[in-house]
Amino acid sequence: MRSAKLIAPLAFALLIAGQASAAVFDFSYTDGANTFGSGQFFTNDLSSPFLITNVTGSETYQGVTEAIIGVGAVGSYANNDNLLFVPGAPGSLTLGGITFTTATDTFNIGFVNPFYAIVQQSTDPAGTFPPGVALANFSVTAVPEPATWAMLLLGFAGLGFALRHSRRKVSFG
Fold this sequence. Notes:
Elements: H1 2-17, E1 23-30, E2 36-43, E3 50-61, E4 64-68, E5 70-71, E6 83-84, E7 98-101, E8 106-112, E9 115-120, E10 133-135, E11 137-142, H2 146-166
Helix pairs in contact: 1-2
């Protein structure tokens, strides 16, 4: 009976969690001076390589800040492939990189061994690496899905329930 009390919440959590349907990754980059940005990459893929289908966030390129409003179509600028490799070594991006758009321009972040670089379409229409701005840091981390959080919380609730009801009452008669 006690094992059924432990297994029931776990089975319920697994039922609710289901299969992952999309992935979200936080990203940030900087050149250590006046070019930096952060936001989120979105994909419908369940495993690496991930085809990025949307990008949101903000970017500052050589002192000018704008909101990131979307992702460029594959092959639209700097021979981009919009692929993200997580985990990736040495880089999470290819030379083609990921292209994103703002209200006034298009940018591409790519991996130019041994560093990442960003190029701007209005100043480099061909999208060549180099030139561009070399980035001192580019990082990508996975964001846990809501189903993962739900499963974690239900697991803790189930353990709490099981512990609460497993205590034996002692009576002195």
